[in-house]
Amino acid sequence: MQRTVLKSSALGFFIVALFLIFDSRSEVVRATRVQAPQEKTVDQVGKNIKVLTGLPESQLIPVMNFFAASMGRRCNFCHVNNQGQWDYASDAKPEKAAAREMIKMVLDINKTTERLKLDPVSCYTCHRGRTSPQSIPMLPLPLPSPPPNGGAAGGPTPGASPQASPSPTPVLPSADEIFSKYAAALGGQASIDKLKSRTAKGTVTQANGNSFQFELTQAAPDKFYLLVTTPQGTVERGFNGQVGWEKTTRGVREITGAELITFKATNGLFTLLKLKEQYSKPPRVRKDKLGDRDVYIVDGTTNDNRRMRLYFDATSGLLLRRTTTMPTMVGIIPDQVDLEDYREAEGLKFPFTARAAGIEVGNPTSTRTFTEIKLNVPVDDAKFNMPPKPATP
Q1: Residue-number span of the structural domain to which 302 is assigned
Q2: Angle at Cα 15 formed by Cα 233 and Cα 259, nearest 5°?
């Protein structure tokens, strides 16, 4: 049980890091690939891995949470827990063997979807939060929607008066124009360019009621330090421009590979300030609604092969929502953050409230509230360095 709590907490803190900073909450490019630093795979570091061979170690917990969300279950559905002690390598439960067969089926199906250039399937495609997929239609079937204009499916109602031609589709702004309006709404590109550092304090409240205090320090171009205080102790994460690291009550570890790429992308000072540079090619633009607001959606593939959609208020130009998806061998994992309560802090606007949603069943949402933001304060570079690991006795 303790190991599960630790893993759950670690993922919770990871979610915190995804959106603590106004820049954030998380997939390498087909056209212009950015090669990720090599990291170990789960079969290289774990025991009794039979079908997830080749999966990057940093994707293991997100994938396990994705399985749980797809099935509407928790870890103990497939894994053995003996009086609070987890034995993840055990094959004692038949559900684990069934899960392996289902994973093999998904991998085989996606060989076909890839060949046909279709979106990949996943556990969620069929299960939708249920242990057993619903394969028989529920009766009675809902009535079909009436055809448009009240006519028959094949055309307009006979004898009906001719209708005016629909209005021409309005011309949409380009992605560059949307980014420029966003920069102006925040306080202007000149103010963004002058930004060299930022410190912030606030509170993160999770769906399960847990609340943590945090302190965040960022320095240009991509250094950062995050301190989260919990009843069990503190969690520290940092990046000094070269090395990423995490320090918990269990010790100090270096963050590498794909995990480091995500870590940097979600904690950098300019992650949600300099947006254009994050796309591998010019993104598409369309107009839609987000609640009762008209929004422009900027949609494209990022430099690390994630699908990123940005929802900008069509009137104010401010960013309201960011969604990203991470492709894995067993499906596409989504992530979302909604940004609210923009306030000015020393010449730039930042959202003081962010609501994040992910696929962790036990903690699907988190809300971050800033209480203090300071810009361009002196920062000691030593804060970003990885602490020394304790000597082995």
Answers
A1: 2-34+174-384
A2: 95
